[in-house]
Design a protein that fits this description.
- The protein has about 300 residues and is an alpha/beta fold.
- The chain has two domains: about 220 residues, Rossmann fold, CATH 3.40.50; about 70 residues, Alpha-Beta Plaits, CATH 3.30.70.100.
- The strands form three sheets. The protein has a six-stranded mixed β-sheet with strand order 6-7-8-3-9-10, sandwiched between helices. A four-stranded antiparallel β-sheet has the order 2-1-4-5, covered by helices on one side.
- A hairpin with a 2-residue loop joins strand 4 and strand 5.
- Helix 8 runs antiparallel to helix 9.
- The longest helix is centred in the middle third of the chain and has 15 residues.
Length: about 300
């Protein structure tokens, strides 16, 4: 049985000469989860992805793929990862059918299993209409799908996708988003992108790396909050609000204001209103807010420029 943790990165560092690229990076990715990996240029994002894919070896720390150490089992762990680079290295003179057959010979030992798997990934990636066409004649969207079909050909537990939607038109973008969402049922997916709205649309969490270190680990399904400003906040006020089943956390922002976290993005303003009034406090302002991933990204990465 496969482990719950598809990827575990434990205190990994990597230097290029005297220049540290990644410093004590630690994070994990569960099976069935889609993780967005963000960072400005030069932050260590590409180096981290190359370490995960086995193209580079860490100077210190451990990387485990489904519990197996990359350093001790490089061939086995590479076979457990499907990698889609930003610029997919396809062979334009081949037909899609020829290219996938060629890749199947490399990744899958049995020709019978390879043919069956090629048929399956063509359906998953919706490339059956172009199966007999030359790759060089395909649109950007179809080339991305062919690359993705190659990445999932051996049914690896982990997928690493580098800028999978760059250059796609709106229709292709929506189709690729839906495709990636569906991949979570069989794979743990890590997506590197500069498009923050893309991460918010399809990812469960976002990691932000800055200056070679993980600066934030953001849960994207728990970023709905209620801002409450009122007079005479008492212990009873806090107790009544905490008694609401949908409330998961309360943080005092200022003397007369609270930030209330709700479960599953629930809008509990009605229940909160009743709880506050019952405690004798007077509501001055209450609004539903949502954290902006862009604001958080800018706040973290701007510190580098200031320092």
């Amino acid at each position: 049985m496969l482990n719950q943790k598809a990827i575990e990165v434990l205190n990994v560092s990597k230097n290029f000469g005297s220049i540290p690229a990644v410093k004590d990076v630690s994070f994990s990715l569960d099976r069935g989860e889609i993780l967005g990996f963000l960072g400005p240029n030069g932050a260590g994002k590409t180096t981290t992805m190359r370490l995960l894919a086995g193209f580079l070896s860490p100077d210190s720390g451990k990387i485990l793929i489904d519990g197996i150490n990359i350093r001790n089992n490089p061939v086995k762990t590479k076979n457990m990862i499907g990698y889609l680079p930003e610029h997919v290295p396809l062979y334009g003179e081949m037909r899609v059918s020829e290219y996938l057959a060629f890749r199947g010979c490399i990744k899958i030992k049995s020709k019978k299993l390879s043919r069956a798997r090629i048929s399956e990934v063509c359906k998953i990636c919706d490339i059956e209409p172009v199966f007999k066409r030359l790759i060089r004649n395909l649109s950007k969207g179809y080339r991305q799908r062919v690359g993705l079909a190659d990445a999932i050909l051996s049914d690896p537990p982990v997928l690493i996708l580098d800028e999978p939607t760059t250059g796609l038109d709106p229709n292709q973008l929506r189709q690729t988003r839906n495709l990636i969402k569906n991949l979570r049922h069989r794979h743990a997916v890590l997506i590197s992108t500069h498009i923050l709205s893309e991460v918010e649309a399809i990812c469960d969490r976002a990691l932000i790396i800055n200056e070679g270190r993980i600066a934030a680990n953001v849960s994207l399904d728990k970023n709905e909050k209620i801002f409450l400003e009122c007079e005479n906040i008492s212990d009873d006020t806090l107790k009544n609000i905490r008694g609401i089943s949908e409330v998961s956390d309360i943080r005092r922002v200022l003397e007369n204001s609270l930030e209330i976290q709700t479960r599953n993005n629930t809008d509990s303003r009605g229940d909160i209103f009743e709880a506050v009034v019952k405690s004798g406090a007077k509501i001055l302002c209450m609004k539903h807010t949502k954290d902006s991933l862009e604001d958080l990204f800018m706040e973290i990465t701007s510190k580098q420029k200031i320092q």
